[in-house]
Amino acid sequence: MKPLIKLASKEEDAKELQYYSKEDQVLLAVDCIIFGFDKKNLKILLVKRDIEPQKNRWSLIGGFLKKSENLDTAAIRVLQRLTGLQHVYLEQLNTYSKIDRDPGQRTISVAYFALIDVASHSFDGIQIDAAQWFNLKKSPQLVFDHNEMVEDAIRRLKRRALTKPIGFELLPEKFTMRQLQNLYESILDKKLDKRNFINKVNTLNILDKLYEKDMSSSRKGSFLYQFDAIKYQQKLDEGLIFKL
Fold first, then answer.
1. Is the Cα torsion angle 135, 44, 202, 208 positive or negative in sign?
2. What is the mean pLDDT of residues 190-219?
3. Class for the domain spanning 173-237
4. pLDDT, tens digit, 9 for 90 and up, residues 220-236
5. Alpha-carbon distances of 206 from 39, 65, 67, 97, rounded to whole Å
6. Residue-level pLDDT at 125
7. Number of Cβ within a 10 Å radius of residue 143
8. What CA–CA distances, in Å, run from 185 to 63, 165, 197, 224?
9. pTM for this structure?
10. Phi, psi of 109 (to 5 degrees)
11. What residues contact residue 157 under an 8 Å CB cut-off, 6+ apart?
């Protein structure tokens, strides 16, 4: 009986490899837009580029895809290796492929954005001496098309914040209602009416009010709250539409 599967010969394998070798070789990078919140302002983590081209200019944190990785794995590795951050919110944003976007070599980049609470992360494992937090509104011009990436990430963040509770990724585990409002005002870049905002949040019924107070804001102090992920999932199952 003849075998059902025809094994490729060495000549056929070589021919296939030769076919691939004739194609243009292009680098694939991942760039991470890291947003943070310090209870008052939305921030972005940038690094000074230490190689040419555009050495010593501010840049997003990034690296190249390895053969053994998929894109998500590469983004997680770059984030953890360079900043020590892990187990943070990370979302793929967009792909950037302009021919001349990187003057060093033809490179396609896939951008991700991460959300963290600045106060809760010490960055003990950071490997970049020139990394620095900037207020988002006062951040410097960046290399290549990184400004475009940041602008796209801000637009995505605004949409996500209004339709999903990702804003809580930027807050400490316990927070005041004022801190929550400050966060959404920073993301949306506009002032929100205090009474309307609190009413909307309370209507969602996804926060737990604690018997603790933050005494740093006033003599009376402000009650602390926690986001309840289990309650949120139950509300989703019941048909909740998250909207702020």
1. negative
2. 88
3. mainly alpha
4. 778 899 999 998 888 88
5. 20, 38, 42, 40
6. 55
7. 18
8. 32, 15, 10, 19
9. 0.86
10. -120, 140
11. 35, 113, 115, 166, 187
